Design the sequence.
């Protein structure tokens, strides 16, 4: 029995559970409707802190095993106190982590054992946009580049195809390369 | 002298330095060309860790005052170990933090003292997309909603206008609501 259980775990991914989850969602598609959330509190200057704990999924309200807190700030050169990375750096982390999680899952599903996955994400931004100094410059990144180093027990073409499949199924890649409508409501007073 | 220095600090934002920075960039627009980066290392399963330290800006290579590390994972219900929030939750944090930093800066520049800024960001996502079970469902968020509570020494309309200006100058809001090209390169073997 133990050998059978271990067989199903590849790259730390329990493929038996992964396939069972896919079957469960096929049978009840509404289980896949999730809502994720972050709450943020302004601390001082450009420094704020987000709390991430509850989310909705598989038909009910859920909570992470612990509550996560993340700080964001601007560095001194951008008139902040450097209490955390800038928001745009957090975004690059989100992209790298999303592509990497997908990579591990897809490799596991395809029977490929990974030994190393590293990535560097770089984003070019011209702050003349957010500073309001040039109306022709956008506020956000002009382009983002991701560089992966992937090693495992498969030929380079197979490893590259796994990265490509991860790109095609990445939530954060989709958010960044396609547009998502964002509504903002304000209680002020 | 001390009184003068204190006068320039509002909401923890040194407005004298903020305006001096704006003037410096007006005089030398290339100073505003930044590159931000995150490096990510796969740990196990859907768990990865990003490192954020160096960046380029104001004409030279720079480093944060300390190196930041962030973990991302999937919760058990998504076949992970919950070692960190999901990548899509990190993205919501990035959006909240970006809008909030802008709010503090803009309020300071407009002479408004803030006493409280809180926000909740929620994102709706149907995982039938990333699970590859329904080609009509996108991978990323279908919509994102932000709810701000803002208090300060100005009428509600003035506070709301500050949030609106922050939206119009937010880098992360722009990335999410407009598209950014992302290139992915892979070294495999």
Sequence:
């Amino acid at each position: 029995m133990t050998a059978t259980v271990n067989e199903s775990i590849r790259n730390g991914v329990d493929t038996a559970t992964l396939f069972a989850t896919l079957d469960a969602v096929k049978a009840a598609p509404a289980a896949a409707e999730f809502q994720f959330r972050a709450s943020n509190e302004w601390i001082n200057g450009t420094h704020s802190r987000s709390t991430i704990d509850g989310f909705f999924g598989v038909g009910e309200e859920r909570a992470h095993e612990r509550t996560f807190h993340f700080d964001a700030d601007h560095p001194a050169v951008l008139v902040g106190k450097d209490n955390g990375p800038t928001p745009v750096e957090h975004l690059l982390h989100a992209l790298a982590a999303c592509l990497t999680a997908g990579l591990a899952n897809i490799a596991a599903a395809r029977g490929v054992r990974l030994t190393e996955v590293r990535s560097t994400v770089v984003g070019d931004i011209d702050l003349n946009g957010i500073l309001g100094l040039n109306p022709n410059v956008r506020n956000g990144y002009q382009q983002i580049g991701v560089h992966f180093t992937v090693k495992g027990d498969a030929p380079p073409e197979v490893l590259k195809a796994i990265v490509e499949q991860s790109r095609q199924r990445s939530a954060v890649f989709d958010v960044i390369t396609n547009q998502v409508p964002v509504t903002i409501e304000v209680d002020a007073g």
Summary: The mean pLDDT of chain A is 96. The longest strand of chain A covers residues 60-72. Residues 87-109 of chain A form the longest helix (23 residues).
